[in-house]
Amino acid sequence: MHKGTRLTSFISRSIRSLCFLAAVTATWAQAQNFPDKPLSLVLGFPPGGATDSSMRAVADELSKVLGQGVVVDNRPGAGGAIATQYVVGARADGYTLLTAGLQLATGPHLNKVPYNPLKDLTMIGQLGNVPVLLLAKGDSTIQSAADIVALAASRGNGVSIASGGVGTTGHFGSLILGNALKFKTVHVPFKGGTPGLQALASGDVDLMFDQMSGSMQGLIQAGKVRVVAVMQNTRLAALPNVKSAREFGVLLDAPLQGWQGLAVRSGTPDAVVQKLRAAWITAVNSAAVKTKAEQLGIELDTAKSSEAFQKFYLAEYDRWGTFIKNNQITAQ
Predict the structure, then answer these.
(1) CATH code 3.40.190.150 region(s) in the chain
(2) What is the pLDDT of residue 80?
(3) Distance between CA 146 and CA 253 in Å, rounded?
(4) Is the pLDDT of residue 291 over 80?
(5) Helix pair angle (103-110, 306-326), 10° resolution
(6) How far apart are CA 134 and CA 228, in angstroms?
(7) pLDDT given at position 86
């Protein structure tokens, strides 16, 4: 090789090495100073629901731990895909956080999404599992699964069951109930849990499946809505007088639950991920978050490592993907 060519090649390699070193140094410095500005916590749900209520409590505590504001950014729509796409499209620097939940395991099976949910997200930590409740109008006489079967038989055209939308735990609950009791259900999807609850309270639908929320608590306290069962085979500590699915007359292979946690875009520096993980653990174990979780009936499960939470997410992705396929659920 010509001497001049070798020299040029050496200089080129040296420049590339220096650029790489500079980039690594800059990333390290950013990680060490993280966070030095406010963070954004993106939610794929409208304000007022169960996830919004719990994650706002977490955001307040994260702000205290990190020393920077954590601003809740509601971006509902497309089964959570709008919020997820926004986070995946942001810089991988840890400043744009995503509320992780069941929508990350179900949404991609229902809608074509411009990202890879299995590769583009890194789980930080879990808050807990969110039981799904079976609800009836406040003055309803339903006390057991047999009562629902009798109602369906008397109607002939099925029992109407509201949910917060296609592909939600409420939608899945209507299918699970109909399959278990072998009767026809008429799924009535709403754009969120609150309008569905209002329809239930006014008698426009017979039943509803939903997770606990502030709006639901208000309707329960006012006697307009009644919880008749929790969709798991053991009673819920937060609602000790409410029958389990088994006691109600429905046997479940696995509990119907939502779950909540925190994720960031993959590629976020490991040092930043670890800082977020440490802050998350402190925040979710605070008295304020524990109190809010208890009010919403969330069963805290904060012990999972980031790796264990990632594994849990992948298992949920497979589980609900199979359920959606077997029940031929499609987005509307």
Answers:
(1) 38-130+257-326
(2) 87
(3) 19
(4) yes
(5) 40
(6) 6
(7) 97
Place of tokens 């659920």: 329
Alpha carbon distance 247, 239 (integer Å): 14
131-248, CATH topology level: D-Maltodextrin-Binding Protein; domain 2 (3.40.190)
Nearby residues of 22 by Cβ (< 8 Å), 6 or more positions away: none
Cα–Cα–Cα angle for 312, 79, 134, nearest 5°? 75
* DSSP code of residue 243: P
Predicted TM-score of the model (pTM): 0.83
- Three-class secondary structure assignment of 275-302: HHHHHHHHHHCCHHHHHHHHHCCCEECC
Q: How far apart are CA 221 and CA 63, in angstroms?
A: 32
Reduced to 3 states (helix: H, G, I; strand: E, B; else coil), residue 201 is helix
Residue with tokens 């390290």: 28
Going by pLDDT thresholds of 50, 70 and 90, the confidence category of residue 164 is confident
Helices marked H in the chain — which ranges?
3-33, 50-66, 81-89, 103-110, 145-155, 169-181, 193-201, 214-221, 245-248, 270-284, 287-295, 306-326
Q: How far apart are CA 88 and CA 80, in angstroms?
A: 12
**In this structure, how many other beta carbons lie within 10 angstroms of the beta carbon of residue 25?**
10
pLDDT of residue 48: 77
Q: Which two tokens stand for residue 103?
A: 């929508």
Q: Identify whether the C-beta of residue 191 lies closer than 8 Å to the C-beta of residue 126.
A: no
Asked if the 38-130+257-326 domain carries CATH number 3.40.30.10, the reply is no
Q: How far apart are CA 237 and CA 305, in angstroms?
A: 25
How far are the Cα atoms of 27, 30, 245, 313 from residue 33, in angstroms, in the given order?
A: 10, 5, 49, 30
| 190, amino acid identity | F
Nearest to 106 by CA among 316, 312, 263: 316
